[in-house]
Structures are given as C-alpha cells and as structure tokens.
Specification:
3 domains; about 30% helix; Aminopeptidase; 13-stranded mixed β-sheet; globular; about 350 residues; 10 helices
Length: about 350
C-alpha cells in the first residue's frame, strides 16, 4: 500500500471512488456537502503554499483503494475530517488502509500547525471505531433535524426582550451565550473564542452584510444577548440551514424567537430547513420537534488534540494574540538569559470594551 497526496491524474479515480457508495466510511450528507470529493481533490492538487485542504489517496497495484480528505476551519489551528472512503472488504485490510491514510493526513495537519482535528460520524458504526484507533475521543452528540415546510405561528415576545440584527460588536456576547450553554468538556474540546463569531469592523459589516453567507439576529435582555439565530442558504440545494442558541433563562421564548427571526431574515418558509442540535440543547431539540422538525440523523462529534513542536517565542506570540493585550514581555524573561518563560502567563479573553494596555 502506498499513500500520497492527490495528483491531477487521480481525479478520474477519485470520481469513481465517490460514485462507489459501498466505500463510504465518513461521508457528509448531501445537505452538508458544499463541494464534491472530486472538486476538493482538484483544489487540493492545485494548492501549493497556503494549503487549507488535504486529499490523500491510497493505491495498491495501480488501483485506488482509499481516500481521506480534511479541510481547515478558520485559520489553521482547527481542521475537520470531511471524507474517508475505503474499498477493501476485509475488516483487517480496512483497518490497515485507514491507519495508513490517517498517519499521513494527521502528519500533514500537524505540519500546518493544526492543534485540533474534528470529525462527525454515525454513532456506533465503522468510522467511529477507526477514529478511536487514531486517538479521537467523543465530546458530544449532534442531531440533524429537518423540516420540509416551516409553519411557525406568530407569537409575541415578552416586553423585556428585544430582537435586532446582529452587529460586529456582538461577537463577545454570542461567545458568552455559547459558554453559558456548552459544558466545560465541550468548550475544552472545541477551544473556541469570540473570533468564531467575528464579522469584522462596523464599516466592513455594513458594506458586505448583503453578501455574507449567513444572516443573523440576536435576542437581548437589558443589553445581554440571550438568544442568537443564523440562517444560511445552502448552495446548490433548495434548502437553508438554521442555527439557534438560547439561554436557559428564556427557554420558553423559542417559538416567539423563531417566528420573529424568520420575518427579520426574510426566510423562505417553503424551503427545506435543516438544523443541527446538540444533546445538551434539550429545549431547542424538543421545541423544534414541536414545530414540525424531524430527526433524520444522529452523529457522534469527535476531536483529536494534536501535539505540535513550537518555539517559546511562538507560544508567547500566540498567547498575546489570544488576549488581545499589549503586554511588556520582559517580565516573563528569565533573569540573565533573555529566554521567555510562559509558566506565569495565563490566557484570558476579555470583552473589547474592557481591554487595556499594561506597561
């Protein structure tokens, strides 16, 4: 068996493997897949320096018998396994093929500075077993809910709550909402910050909001964000993706929040709407089912934390960027050596209006 990066002359074989449904181990549903495996393989072969996609193929006796694809999320520190396809029928051969593909894939991700690798697999099936062999661990369960036709009756919001379009400065508030919902184990696994919901400066947002892939509203209670809704049109499908977060103290406002959000976001009620809900979001899960959503899939979300060799200088720069603070780093240098020590440095993200510069 030989594993290598995909090349242009492999595209026909990749397309053949993609059309072979019996080879699927990890594979996105049609509504989740923004691009085909062949398209991503072409993009992988085309990229050179700024590699944000990887496609590795496994060949034996001039035949392609396996393929693995991964893509970088925002930045290069987090990656997601998109596809794993294996042809061998023998279980032992499939394990060896998967191990060979992942060895190269994870090494390439580590070389690009990847710190976390995520994957979503059907609970209890082959993909989960193969990923466990590679050190992936499960951190939560995600349910896919689908509604063919939205029919949400108009419901008034409580007087103390307000609904408005999101602003760039709301990134911190949405992040705080996420922290209030996600268990510590999930927050540790995902390692998210407010940058996950950042939309740039106010001027940039006002100029580009009509072309952004998703449109968002927030629910506020005395200035505190207690609800968030994003609606994204799924390219190539007459469908849309709904994302919802709701603070536990306003759980009973879900129908009213969605009713007002659909109007504010000009939602197409006649389109298929898909929403991914996690196991700790019980109120949203049950509320969507009452509105006509049906559970169509259940996935185990897995993560693998990577170890990457970095210098102390790189660690310090990364910590300072995460804090967003201008800190005099001389206090972290060992006396007489000029070497920085990070033992006393704690990374804490602060709201934008609370960030200060220390000397």
């Amino acid at each position: 068996m030989g594993v290598r990066s995909v090349r242009f002359h492999d595209l026909f074989a990749v397309r053949h493997l993609e059309a072979h449904p019996d080879s699927y181990v990890i594979w996105p549903s049609p509504l989740e897949a923004q691009h085909s495996a062949t398209y991503l393989a072409l993009a992988s072969a085309w990229q050179d320096v700024n590699q944000t996609l990887f496609t590795f193929v496994l060949r034996e006796k001039r035949q392609m018998i396996g393929m693995a694809q991964a893509a970088a999320q925002s930045g290069h520190d987090a990656w997601e396994v998109l596809r794993l396809s294996l042809v061998p029928a023998d279980p032992e051969d499939r394990e060896r093929a998967a191990d060979a593909l992942f060895e190269q894939l994870l090494a390439a991700i580590g070389g690009r500075g990847g710190m976390r690798v995520f994957a979503g697999v059907t609970d209890g099936e082959e993909g989960q077993i193969l990923l466990h062999r590679q050190g992936f661990r499960r951190y939560t369960t995600q349910y896919s809910l689908l509604c063919e036709h939205l029919d949400i009756p108009p419901t008034p919001l409580p007087e103390h709550l307000g609904l408005r379009l999101r602003r760039p400065a709301d990134a911190w508030g949405i992040f705080q909402l996420y922290c209030s919902l996600a268990p510590p184990s999930v927050r540790h696994a995902e390692g998210l910050s407010s940058k996950r919901w950042n939309r740039g400066t106010s001027l940039f947002h006002s100029l580009t909001r009509h072309w952004l892939p998703g449109h968002e509203v927030v629910l506020t209670d005395e200035g505190l964000i207690v609800g968030w809704v994003r609606l994204t049109q799924i390219k190539g499908h007459a469908a849309q993706r709904l994302e919802v977060m709701l603070h536990p103290r306003v759980n009973d406002t879900l129908p009213a929040l969605l009713a007002h959000a659909m109007v504010a976001l000009n939602a197409r009620l006649d389109r298929h709407t898909v929403c991914y809900v996690r196991e700790y979001e019980a109120t949203v899960y049950s509320g969507l089912q009452e509105m006509g959503f049906t559970v169509v899939a259940e996935q185990a979300l897995l993560v693998k934390h990577m170890a990457t060799r970095v210098t102390e200088r790189q660690l310090l720069i990364a910590a300072l960027r995460a804090q967003g603070l201008g800190i005099d780093v001389s206090r972290y240098q060992q006396p007489g050596t000029g070497v920085s020590t990070l033992a006393n440095l704690t990374t804490v993200e602060l709201p934008l209006h609370d960030r200060t510069r220390t000397n």
